[in-house]
Amino acid sequence: CGSGTLRGSGFVYRHGGTDNHIIGDVYDCEGRMNFSFWWPVGLVVMAGVGYQVSAKEVAGGADPLAALVVTYLVASLTSFLIYAFTGKKGEKWKEIMSFRPAALVLGLSIAFIEIGTIFIYKAGWTMNASFIVTNALITLCLILTGAVLYGEKLSRRQALGIVVSFIGICCIVW
User: Fold this and answer.
1) Cα–Cα distances in angstroms (integers) from residue 128 to residues 27, 49, 66, in the given order
2) Interior CA angle at 71 toward 112 and 135, to 5°?
3) Cα–Cα distance for residue pair 132/160, rounded to 1 Å
4) Going along the chain, which residue ranges are E strands?
5) Could you state, in chain order, the average pLDDT of each consecutive group of 10 residues for the chain (174 residues)?
6) Strand partners, 11
7) Cross-strand partners of 33
8) How many helices (DSSP H) and strands (DSSP E) are in the chain?
9) Which stretches of 15-74 are assigned E, i.e. beta strand?
10) Chain CA centroid to CA 163, Å
């Protein structure tokens, strides 16, 4: 691809030309959108909409924690089947048992996100306000976490974005 390639990856960044990239392989060498970069975004968006609608529906039911048991059984079965058909060949059980401790924290985090979301809706939050507020707050926390724990740069523009986001959250809630 010539200049602008990312260390031989075959993909070109189409923004700014600096080394401080926020996102990566948006376009291939011929200027086409990189499908492998964007399909996960589409999957997350579709699943996210399904998640929010389902969580709101579950919140109106009998016992939301009982619904989470069914939710996690379905999620576990889905994960197992996807791994069984697409995972590394060979000793799959060994791969499962060699997880990192972060996988346990991820599991707890997912469970608490589910529980929190259901109880947000039980408390009467609207879907649009709850999603905007929680995700804006998560984004703010992740910007700070990235800077403190991982040494990620925090530009003045990003700092201004934090302030604007906080003001936006205040406008939505009050």
Assistant:
1) 32, 11, 25
2) 40
3) 18
4) 11-12, 27-28
5) 45 42 64 78 87 88 87 93 82 79 89 92 90 88 89 88 86 82
6) 28
7) 27
8) 6, 2
9) 27-28
10) 22
